Amino acid sequence: MKGLEIRDAHFPGRAPLDAYGDGGFRFAEMSHRGSLLCVPSGIYGWNLTTPAEFRLEAFDRVIEEQPDIEVLLVGTGPDLSPLSADLKGAFREAGILADPMSTGAAVRTYNVLLSEGRAVAAALLAVD
Questions:
Q1: I want to staple 98 with a disulfide (CB 3.0 to 4.6 A). Which of 24, 59, 91, 119 is the partner?
Q2: Counting beta carbons within 10 angstroms of the beta carbon of residue 39, is it exposed (0 to 12), middle (13 to 18) or buried (19 or more)?
Q3: Which is one Pfam family of this protein (predicted)?
């Protein structure tokens, strides 16, 4: 008998986000507690909780999928927090327009751009 296998949270494919708040998100008839990274290859759990944790390594998956991402919406929690100059520069160099905004605004914008078939990704901090 095989031991318990623990995998990173992952939903293969793209899906609109149905709800956010209470520390998580709902999408594709599922719920996820914590932050999310939504990229073309799927929706992944993201272990960040505050904008202070934004480092380039946290966005590795976004950079890896760059040919399929033109716009990255960064949900910075209940309020807008600007991205550091280093992060903005790294995204610019990769050909990605990174747009920070509150998580609520990012969710709404993501859903609109996704429905239009745009090359969009989202990095979303969970909010209460």
A1: 91
A2: buried
A3: DUF498
Residue 9: what pLDDT?
59
Task: For the chain, give the longest Cα–Cα distance.
Answer: 51
Q: How high is the pLDDT of residue 7? A: 46
pLDDT tens per residue across span 49-78:
999 999 999 999 999 998 999 999 999 999
For the entire predicted model, the pTM comes to 0.91
DSSP state of 120: E
DSSP-derived letter for residue 68 is G
Q: Are 69 and 120 in contact (CB under 8 A)?
A: yes
- DSSP state, 93? H
Q: Are strands 97-101 and 120-124 parallel, antiparallel or unpaired?
A: unpaired
Neighbouring residues of 3: CB distance < 8 A, sequence distance ≥ 6: none
pLDDT of 36 above 80: yes
Instruction: Tell me how far apart the alpha carbons of residues 62 and 105 are, in angstroms, rounded to a whole number.
Output: 20
- Which CATH number applies to 10-124? 3.40.1230.10
